[in-house]
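Service request form, structural biology core

Requester: graduate student, group of Dr. S.
Request type: structure prediction, single chain
Budget code: on file
Notes: please return the result as structure tokens.

Sequence provided:
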Amino acid sequence: MEEYSEMEEFELHLNQSAKRFLKETAKWAYFLSILGFIGIGFIVLIAIFAGAIFGTIGGMMPGEIPGKIGSSLGIIMAVVYLLIAALYFFPIYYLNRFASNLKVALKDNNSESLANSFEYLKSHYKFIGIFALIILSFYVLIIVFMSIAGITNVLG
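Core staff response, request fulfilled:
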């Protein structure tokens, strides 16, 4: 199989079936990105309410130290949820840009928009792949530490 360098250009023609599949893919990708943005909005709302709820619960606890812990926990929970929303934003944004550029490319028969759409799709999958590797690494670390804790508990 012959590989092409980035400097070489070749023309790729899409038949009607491929265009129809890509058009349907763009619609679904756009729909999923809109759902993702709505989900991000809910996560931000949860961050606001979690901060307020944990702060209120902490304020209701008797004593000075539990009240401070509850207030701090509210702030920590709000920040955690906002970080989750920020992490979730990037793959959704890339998916939305993929769908938008793909729609334009198919409507206008524009090769540059098609290339841009695939660049956003690449970024989407790259982000998801790196994030999945990070999560899997955390799982491995958790399993290792739990195994070590279990062994030391049995032997100790």
